[in-house]
Amino acid sequence: MSDADDGARGPWESEYLALHDPVTSLPNRLLMTEFLAGALSSPQEARRVLAVFCLDLDNFRHFNEMFGPSAGDLILAETARRIRRCVRDHDLVARVDADTFIVVATGVGDAKAVDGLTRRLQSALNAPIGLSSGAVAYPLVNMGIALAPLDAEDADGLVRCAELALEQAKAEGPGTCSYFADDMNDEMSGRRTLEGDLRRAIVSDEFVLLFQPRCDARTLKLLGVEALIRWDHPQLGLLAPDAFVPIAEKSGLVIPIGEWVLRKACDTISRLPDLNVSVNVSVVQFRNDALVDTVDAVLKSTRVAPQRLELEITESVLIENAEKALEVLAGLKNLGVRLSMDDFGTGYSSLGYLRTFPFDALKIDRRFVGDLDHSKEALAIVQAILGLGRALGMQVVAEGVETESQLAILRADSCDEVQGFFLGRPMTEEALLAFIADRRLAS
Ligand code: C2E
Ligand code: CA
Ligand code: CA
C-alpha cells in the first residue's frame, strides 16, 4: 500500500496505532513486551535490577456502570497520567488490558528503590478522582511486583510472575500489593489444575453427597438430614468441601455444583417420606438471580414438598448486598422452603437483620458447642442464642454435638434440635437407610 492510498494516516501513524492504546495513548502489550525483552537483553541492564509492576483497578467495572463509559475513560486516562508521574522518563508504562497497566522500571538499583516506587504508586493511585459531572470516584489499585533477574530472566516469565503476584494481592483485598514469591507458581498452578478438574468432575459425576442426622433434642427422634458434599477425586481421593468449595466459588462453578447438590438432596428425600433435608447455599449462588427458579424447578421435578427443604445460609450473604439478599430470601420464602442461619455467632452478627430477614432457624456454630463442657463463656453464648431464638420465634439447632454432656446441657436449656458426631456422622444414602432401619428396630 502506498502512502497516498493510506489517506491522512501515514505508515508511522498506523504503526503507532498498532502499538498504542487510544484511550490513554500508552503503549499496548505488544510494545511493552518488545521493550521488556530489549531491556532484559541489553548488556547495560544485565547487572542491574529491573522491576515489573502489574497494576489493576479493582473496582473499574463498577465505575463504568455507575458513572458511564466516558467517565470510565477519564478514570483510565487519569490513572495513566498518575502512573507516568511516579516513574522516570525512560521507564515504560503500558495499558495491557481493560483496567490493567504494566510498568517496566529499568535500572532501579536495589530493593529499597523498588519499595519507594511501590509506595509512590500506591499513594498516587488510591486517591480520589474528580469527574466532570462533579461526582468523585475512589479507585483502589492492586499491584503485583516481579524482579529480574531474581524471579525470571525473560520477558514472558517476568510478566507472568508479576501477574501471579497481582492475583495474590487481589486475594488479600482491594488496594494491596504483593511481591512475587516462588511458591505462588505452585499454588496458582495447583489452583488452576483443581479448577480444571472441577469442571470435569461435574460431567463425570465425581461428587458424592453425604447426609448427617438432625435430631429432636428432647426425644432424639430423627427429623431430617443435612446434605454435605464430598469430591471423589480420581487422584487425590475423597476431598472435604473446604478443599474445593472456595475454588468452586471463585470460578463460579459452585452454581452448577450447588444445583447438583439440591437435586441430589431432594431426590434422596423423595424416597424417604418422613425426613426433611437441609442444603448449604453459598453466597455466590445468592448473587445469581436464577436461585429461586432453580429451587422451584428442583422441588417440582423431584415432587418434594417445599416445607421439607431447608436452605442453610451464612451471614456473609446479608453483609454483601443486604437489599438483593432480602429480595432472594423473600422469593425463596414464597416458594415455601425453610431458611436457616448457619454458623450463627461467628459472623458479623449485627442482630438487627434477624428481625428483617425471614429465618426459621438458627444453627449455633459448632465451635461454641464444642467448648460447652469446659468454657463458661461458650455456655453463656449458647444460652444467649437459645434465648434470642425463643424471643424471635425461631428454632435453634446446635451443631457439632460430640458428647453426652454437651447434649445434656443443650437439653436443659431447651435447644430444639441437635446435630453432631454423637448422634451420627455424615453418611452415604445407603448408610442412612441402614441407620434408619437400626433405629426402627431399637425403638
Ligand atoms: P457446615 O455447614 O457448618 O457443616 C457442618 C460441618 O461440621 C460438616 O463438615 C460436618 O461434617 C461437620 N461436623 C458435623 N458434626 C460434627 C461434630 O460433631 N464434630 C465436628 N468436629 N465436626 C462436625 P464438612 O462436611 O467438612 O463441611 C464443611 C463446610 O463445607 C460446611 O460447614 C459447609 O459450609 C460447606 N459445605 C458442605 N457441603 C456443601 C455444599 O453442598 N454446598 C456448599 N456451598 N457448601 C457446603
Ligand atoms: Ca451447614
Ligand atoms: Ca455450620
From TrEMBL:
GO terms for molecular function: cyclic-guanylate-specific phosphodiesterase activity; diguanylate cyclase activity. This is Bifunctional diguanylate cyclase/phosphodiesterase. Its EC number is 2.7.7.65, 3.1.4.52. Residues 48-182 form the GGDEF domain. PANTHER family: DIGUANYLATE CYCLASE DGCP, MEMBRANE PROTEIN. InterPro entries: Biofilm_reg_signaling (IPR052155), EAL_dom (IPR001633), EAL_sf (IPR035919), GGDEF_dom (IPR000160), Nucleotide_cyclase (IPR029787), Rev_trsase/Diguanyl_cyclase (IPR043128). Keywords: Hydrolase, Nucleotidyltransferase, Transferase. It comes from Xanthobacter oligotrophicus. Residues 191-440 form the EAL domain. PROSITE patterns: EAL (PS50883), GGDEF (PS50887). The keyword Ubl conjugation does not apply. The keyword Cell inner membrane does not apply.
